[in-house]
């Protein structure tokens, strides 16, 4: 008997495209939420971090502290301090600077509060880039004696950016432009444009002393600030004050200060050596040069005897420093003055410049260094940095020309003029000691380096 066998037939499962689409959409949306949500959180945290970092930068601190001040104004995209302002002081490299402006990119243009040198511009047919001043300010590999001032700046690669110096020819101060700019150096000179934006003769840059500016007129005469704060022009042979400009990086964080003269803004993590204060017995000195651990010091005041400022003649006939000629300033410094110092055993004989400067060598400051002397006590040379421009009426160690009986005297209002070597003037001594002798202190005015 034949049995009927029922065959089982498997049915094909029908693919549900709607469910598959929903699942894929869910995965896609989930990925988007995770991706974009994560990015949102990342950028939020990054933005929050950036805001926090910006809040501690020097530029942001300054803007916040002065946003309601009538002496802080916006000009185009920059912010200038203007008028008789008292909150734009900055300490850097043991010098006091003033904030000129905060640039659009938050870099900060500073100018030295006082002149840090007195020199001639040089040949006025040269551009600012070719002038004697720019070589004194900035170091060049082609000039071994260049960069007298740049060499004293503390960690400049870390703290500074290149400074934009305006080279436009200006004939009418009512029509100022700044289209031709030099951007190759750390140090520059102030432009007429910036001077006027800070208030001109009513602003903080005017300190009743003569100072060079960066611009020329169509006759190649150089603009400068007079002792009344007015603008005038001169040929390149006039010896005037130099107030240098630098530009701080936009990324610097503030480390202290409120911007006043007694509490300037600070940003350096460690202080530099040059410009530091040194206390030896009751005398206050400042470091103006270092070479192989030997430091040169200049006294912060003129020499006094019996509580009176001492005046002395330089020599009988020449500006040459000769400490073997009795009656000369060089002899007095290396005998009477030296022997009266309680710390004379620390003083080392060293090399000092004793050259000449004038039309005979085209006002090339490098020529001053071609003539040198070996002595224990000297005086400042015209090519040295000025660390205290409140002093005046004192001898420099620089003559007008070779074999000249005329020597340069630092006068009031930043003026340098020549007098006969037989006249009497004040004395600012210079000495050298080994750096290792300074074992105490930080070099600050309130905590100078000391030997014990």
Quick description:
This protein is of the alpha+beta class. The protein has six helices and 28 strands.
Notable features of this structure?
2 domains, alpha+beta, 6 helices, 28 strands, four-stranded antiparallel sheet, 17% helix, disordered N terminus, 452 residues, eight-stranded antiparallel sheet
Topology:
Elements: H1 17-55, H2 58-66, E1 72-75, E2 78-81, E3 89-92, E4 95-102, E5 108-112, E6 118-120, H3 132-137, H4 156-159, E7 160-161, E8 163-166, E9 181-185, E10 188-189, H5 192-197, E11 211-216, E12 222-225, E13 231-234, E14 239-241, E15 244-248, E16 277-280, E17 283-291, E18 294-299, E19 304-305, E20 308-309, E21 311-313, H6 329-339, E22 350-353, E23 372-375, E24 394-399, E25 406-410, E26 416-420, E27 424-426, E28 430-434
Antiparallel strand pairs: 1-2, 2-4, 3-4, 4-5, 5-15, 6-14, 7-15, 8-9, 10-15, 11-12, 12-13, 16-17, 17-18, 18-28, 19-20, 21-27, 22-23, 24-25, 25-26
Question: Can you put this structure into words, describing what you see?
Answer:
The protein has helices at 17-55, 58-66, 132-137, 156-159, 192-197, 329-339, and strands spanning 72-75, 78-81, 89-92, 95-102, 108-112, 118-120, 160-161, 163-166, 181-185, 188-189, 211-216, 222-225, 231-234, 239-241, 244-248, 277-280, 283-291, 294-299, 304-305, 308-309, 311-313, 350-353, 372-375, 394-399, 406-410, 416-420, 424-426, 430-434. Mean pLDDT is 90; it is low at 1-12 and 46-53. The protein starts with 16 loop residues before the first helix and ends in an 18-residue tail after the last strand. By secondary structure, the protein is of the alpha+beta class. The protein has 2 domains: 58-248, no CATH class; 277-437, no CATH class. The strands form 9 sheets. Strands 1, 2, 3, 4, 5, 7, 10 and 15 form an 8-stranded antiparallel beta sheet that branches. A 4-stranded antiparallel beta sheet has the order 16-17-18-28, with no helix packed on it. A hairpin with a 5-residue loop joins strand 4 and strand 5.
